Amino acid sequence: MIAKPDAGPEIPGRTSVPRAHHFRGSLGRFATGVAIVTFDGVTKRHGITVNSFTSVSMEPPLVLVSIARATKAHDELAGRPFTVNILGAEQRQLAMHFAGRPGPEPLWVESATAPRLSNVLAWFECQPWAAYDGGDHTLYLGEVVDFNYRNGDALAFANSAFTTIPESQLGMEDLL
Ligand SMILES: Cc1cc2nc3c(=O)[nH]c(=O)nc-3n(C[C@H](O)[C@H](O)[C@H](O)COP(=O)(O)O)c2cc1C
């Protein structure tokens, strides 16, 4: 059955799931990778875990992250260079560290554009390109000025849980 846009929850046996919770649950069915946006603000270094990373354009090379207005990183990211760090399967602790569950201080790699995290699966250093209103988020587009990747399993996020994408399932570059 296809739900109408304004229909209530489609969960058998449950009739009163709050709409926002149901919306999150529905969005959560879209599996993503996990990334950390890192940059130097005015007084401190920021890192924020995101799964809203999207590639946007090849020429010029543009990527996008969607940052909640309520976060500490939000205001300071405006107009600043940043790095998107794509996490490997063994980096769940890093994801939690930058999502409000601090653990041991991670290792940083300094760069002229923006700092990045050591040994991530891939990274994209970006200069600020544009910022768009995204409701209670802002869509920050960055122009990629440097990037790299290593081999390894990818960290993924789906249904509110971390999971692993084995490296053997990567490798369709020739199709894209
Ligand atoms: C897997 C995962 C994905 C997330 N994706 C986003 C995202 O795309 N955008 C965002 O603003 N916050 C996202 N968050 C939440 C932020 O990481 C979290 O709110 C952050 O810790 C806010 O930092 P602050 O409390 O220091 O402001 C995500 C959290 C997790 C665990």
Strand content: 35-45%
Name the CATH superfamily classification of the domain at 32-153: Electron Transport, Fmn-binding Protein, Chain A
Tally of DSSP helical segments: 3
Number of strands: 12
Radius of gyration: 17 Å
CATH class category name of the domain at 32-153: Mainly Beta
CATH architecture of the domain at 32-153: Roll
The biggest beta sheet reads: 7 strands, antiparallel
Order of strands across the main sheet: 3-2-6-9-10-5-4
What would the keywords be for this entry?
Pnp Oxidase, Chain A; mainly beta; 40% strand; binds flavin mononucleotide; disordered N terminus; three-stranded antiparallel sheet; 3 helices; 176 residues
What does this molecule look like?
- 12% of the residues lie in helices and 40% in strands.
- The chain is mostly beta strands.
- It has a domain at 32-153: Electron Transport, Fmn-binding Protein, Chain A (Pnp Oxidase, Chain A), CATH 2.30.110.
- It has a 7-stranded antiparallel β-sheet with strand order 3-2-6-9-10-5-4.
- A hairpin with a 4-residue loop joins strand 4 and strand 5.
- The chain is globular, with a radius of gyration of 17 Å.
- The structure holds flavin mononucleotide (FMN).
- Flavin mononucleotide (FMN) is lined by residues 34, 48-52, 66-68, 71-72, 95, 99-100, 157.
